[in-house]
Each structure stands twice: as structure tokens, then as C-alpha cells.
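FAQ

Q: What does a record look like?
A: Structure on top, sequence underneath. For example:
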């Protein structure tokens, strides 16, 4: 199975909701940061990718029908090239609300992890720090910088991915635009709503960015 859908949106843009939606539409299993926590052996792969080593994407994505969230969204361009038939979904939300959610979840975990980092921790465990803290935000978690990085990423996706291959999507839009883009029938069930800030903390782990 090759990836059919590539999520290019950053964490806290409804990626866990999108994962649930894609799986309900038949594009699962969907890779998300929680998959890395469930399969810690993946950390070495993502660290190698994070530092720019050549990787075989099938090492991780064999058996997956889609991907969303960090760490894979950081590599949306490479994945779009590797899987040329895949559609790309850029999940977005209002930048101010997104930052508020980030500040109360992912950034809080990141800052705590960096402040209390074990110098003897395995190097592979740094994959999220490299991808998110360093390469996405340049080590600067200030509001203005984080929002600027968010908007820069989104603009780059729109500039990079051909429009016929890209859906810019907000979870509040529900099933219709997603199903139309993917050529899937609209389910009778309500569109998923999951991974609130409260839910985030039920599965947050050190270096979590889900």
C-alpha cells in the first residue's frame, strides 16, 4: 500500500481529527505522532530524516494509507515527490487560536523537555526537538515567531503543491470538501471532533507534539 493522502498541516490544526476522518473514509491506517509513541523503534528513522540523512520512506509507511501531523508533515514535499499519486491536505485554523492551542500543549511540553533534558538520553529521542523546536521555530517560542513560522509553512505548501493536488482544509468545514477532494462518499456519521487540549494531556509524553 502506498500513501494516498499526505497531511501537510502542522500539529494542533485538527490533525488528530483529520486522522480519524481519513481512517473512516478508508484511507487508513493514518500515521500521526501517536504512531511514533506506539512504535518507539520509529524514532531512529525520524531522527535520521530530521538531520538530513537519506531515508527510505517505505521503512515507516509500509501499510499506511495516509499521514498527518508532525513528524511527517515536516517532510510533505519529499513525501509528495515519493508518492506522486497521493493527494495533499493542508489542515489550517485561525493563527491566533492555533497559537493559543500550541502554547497550552505542544510548546509547553517542548519547553519543559528542553529545560529538563537528560544529557544521557538516547539521541534518537531528539527527533521531535530537531523537527519542531529547531527546524520549525528556530528555537524561538515567542508568539510572533511561532505565528510567523506557521504562516510561512502554510504559504510554502500552497506555493509548492499544484492546486489540483491540494486541499486547504479546516475541520470546521466537515465532511463535504474533504470527501469531494478525495472522491469519497459523505458518511452518515458526524464529522469527528477529537484531541481537545484536555485530550492532548491524556496522551502527551516527553517531547510529544501530537
Amino acid at each position: 500500500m502506498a500513501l494516498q493522502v499526505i497531511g501537510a498541516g502542522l500539529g494542533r490544526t485538527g490533525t488528530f481529527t483529520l486522522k480519524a476522518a481519513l481512517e473512516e473514509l478508508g484511507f487508513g491506517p493514518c500515521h500521526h505522532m501517536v504512531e511514533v509513541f506506539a512504535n518507539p523503534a520509529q524514532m531512529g528513522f525520524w531522527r535520521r530524516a530530521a538531520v538530513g540523512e537519506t531515508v527510505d520512506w517505505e521503512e515507516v509507511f509500509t501499510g499506511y494509507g495516509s499521514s498527518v501531523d508532525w513528524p511527517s508533515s515536516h517532510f510533505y514535499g519529499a513525501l509528495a515527490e515519493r508518492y506522486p499519486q497521493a493527494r495533499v491536505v493542508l489542515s489550517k485554523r485561525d493563527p491566533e487560536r492555533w497559537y493559543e492551542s500550541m502554547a497550552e500543549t505542544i510548546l509547553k511540553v517542548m519547553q519543559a523537555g528542553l529545560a529538563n533534558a537528560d544529557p544521557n538520553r538516547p539521541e534518537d529521542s531528539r527527533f521531535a526537538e530537531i523537527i519542531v523546536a529547531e527546524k520549525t521555530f528556530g528555537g524561538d517560542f515567542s508568539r510572533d515567531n511561532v505565528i510567523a513560522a506557521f504562516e510561512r509553512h502554510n504559504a510554502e505548501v500552497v506555493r509548492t503543491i499544484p492546486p489540483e493536488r491540494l486541499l486547504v482544509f479546516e475541520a470546521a468545514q466537515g465532511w463535504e470538501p474533504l470527501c469531494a477532494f478525495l472522491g469519497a462518499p459523505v458518511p452518515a456519521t458526524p464529522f469527528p471532533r477529537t484531541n481537545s487540549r484536555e485530550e492532548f494531556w491524556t496522551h502527551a509524553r516527553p517531547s510529544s507534539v501530537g
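Q: Is there anything notable about this one?
A: The chain has eleven helices and five strands.
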